[in-house]
Amino acid sequence: MSDLLYSEVEEDLRASVRDLLTDRAGFTSVLARTESAEPYDLKLWRTLAGDLGLAGLAVPESLGGQGASYREVAVVLEELGRSVAPVPFLGSAVLATTALLAAGDRELVPRLAGGELIGALAVPLTSAPESGFPDGVSANTEGALSGAVRAVVDAPVADVLIVPAAGPDGAGLYAVEQTAATVSDVVSLDLTRRLADVSFDNASSRLLASGAEAESALRQALRAGAGLLASEQVGLAQRCLDETVAYLKQRYQFGRPVGSFQALKHRLADLYLELVSARATARHAADALATGDDEVPVAVAVAAATCSAVALHAAEESVQLHGGIGMTWEHSAHLYLKRAKSDELALGTPGRHRAALAGLVDLPPA
Amino acid sequence: MSTVTADDLRARVGELLAAHPPASTDRLEFLRARFDAGLAWVHYPEGLGGLGAPRELQNVVDAELAKAGAPDNNPRRIGIGLGMAAPTILRFGTDEQKHRYLRPLWTGEEVWCQLFSEPGAGSDLAALGTRAVRDGDEWVVDGQKVWTSVAHIARFGILVTRTDPDVPKHQGMTYFICDMTDPGVEVRPLRQLTGEAEFNEVFLSGVRIPDDNRLGAVGEGWKVAQTTLMNERVAIGGNAMPREGGLIGMVTRTWRERPELRTPELHDRLLKLWVEAEAARLAGQRLRQQLAVGAPGPEGSAMKLAFAKLQQALTGLEVELSGEDGLRYDDWTLRRPEKVDMLGRGPGYRYLRAKGNSIEGGTSEVLRNIISERVLGLPSEPRVDKDVAWKDLPR
């Protein structure tokens, strides 16, 4: 039976990440950064990845990682979701690293795990685990890549791009230096997560895996991404609930704390209820990914379908229940709303994950 | 901390089975022996059916006994006794009361009911008006209770009464054990929207209860009732289930077996509910894991709410999915079931019965208040009944 609780080690990890993020990624500094020339805090990233070793948590020690598991990665993501910290964890430590590990790479993994390099997986962030292998980029016999990919997460700061492309003998996974590609920043809905459109024009690359191995590596990366994003969403939802509850206790209207009105209390109780379920599904997905069992596809689809909706609901309620202040730029609610709405599209919408489930659990359509 | 281990319990179960082979032992005799061996509810104290062992070790005992084909005590039939009366007696009863009541309660020889709700006091239980007036060593009780499950087969009832109308409502209550065979106790079936009479009305007219049957101090009935109610919510919706266990399993089976009933819209709803059911199942599993390590979270109330919402949505979908059969009902005969049988009846019954899930054991609205105030720490609404004597409250 899957262990759905947090271990002591995981709670310790959470505490140290939260301390650091409270200190270094408070709302005002995160907001200020979104309007600066450096929207990502790469100094903070170096601390997280290099000093704390978080970029290599699920990487074996023999490859320069911590030898922990996706359960711990999930806890880090909860905290990153809580603070909407502007760091390339999802793109580099989750998507690119998982793809590289699955492709059997031994050169780039240690450098990504140690935080020396930042990686990005060159697929649209909207890709779902069940999406077919993309064909927007093709490789010639010399391994030169041409084509384009839109909305690649963390690409603006990546040193290396992991690119699925149609090679001369079918699917292939290639590594490309960022300087060999054209990376154009996108103005993204989520102010704290950067995207870029990437194009290749005869860009030289190194083949990492081909055929079924490449397809499997991509699917594993997207599946881990979708399953772990659920934990980010749980962290985000919890933060929205906590902030809203705190606000409703101190805000007075009609001579009473607003939080004493039953109409509002019931909405928050419902949100809490959703969060209880969401947390259980996210933990289940993280545990399944950690043990790599047969449960993974179903567990990930359930978590992704559940947590996307819960995070979005929490962020939307947070804006509404904060009233006018919730609509302002200077309150943090909007950063969470933007992250939650983007996360709903990321790595498969709830509808796509439910459609995937229909096949996985034998509930065929009409 | 108890030193009883899983291995100790396996050894004890082995001894019990050797001394009382299930195949050749009378059911009741076996259950009594099991109680006396401390294997009834292992977390209860020694001499009262337990061994003071960690609660989660009960699973070890249950599994071993099930494997040996031993009879169980039909926990669904005596659920109110097990889930509500027993923990209350354990906490507030005298030694004499514990020894008198717990054993036949556990074996099912004596069924218990819960005499709490009244026509004028449901969600606002503390407003209840059933009077108990002291007369020497006895109390004389007059009033009416409602929604009383299994009252018609119950030997005893846990009863909350008003003993002082001149103080605010929470302060003037006293808790008793009521002998349902006493003169003045009249049980009438209360037919509900399903056609069944699963519940009863109980009329109490001049019922004389000895003071020895009081649980807790005079005037402290609310405190005692809180223990009962907390246990009630933990008891609802707390069983381990496999994926697609319960109602979702019935609906998915129909979906697979009757392709002609499928529509795209129903497919959408079914998948959403499938995910919701799986999420609720995992949340229940997480709650039990928390309980097992001794960290009971406040998720219990949330689980009951989630369960009610899900049951209602699923049973609604099931009737729609039944097509023409959804227009039929299996049986309107007035029956008096001893337990709720959701899976043994038709979709129409399930749809109707599930409407009770958000009312019984605390309405969903009351549970939302509990979650928002006790879990989230939000302030309570201003109260008009707080410092007013019960007799002066508008009713």
Could you explain the architecture of this structure?
Chain B: This is Alkylation response protein AidB-like acyl-CoA dehydrogenase. Chain B: It comes from Amycolatopsis viridis. The complex is a heterodimer of chains A (366) and B (395). Chain A is an alpha+beta fold and 366 residues long. Chain A has eleven helices and ten strands. Chain A has a four-stranded mixed sheet. In chain A, a hairpin with a 2-residue loop joins strand 4 and strand 5. The longest helix of chain A is centred in the middle third of the chain and has 39 residues. The mean pLDDT of chain A is 97. With 395 residues, chain B is α+β, with helices and mostly antiparallel strands. Helices cover 40% and strands 13% of the residues of chain B. Chain B has a four-stranded mixed sheet with strand order 1-4-5-8. In chain B, strands 2-3-7-6 form a four-stranded antiparallel sheet, with no helix packed on it. In chain B, a hairpin with a 2-residue loop joins strand 2 and strand 3. Chain B is globular, with a radius of gyration of 23 Å. Chain B starts with 5 loop residues before the first helix and ends in a 20-residue tail after the last helix. The interface between A and B is large, with 43 and 47 residues.
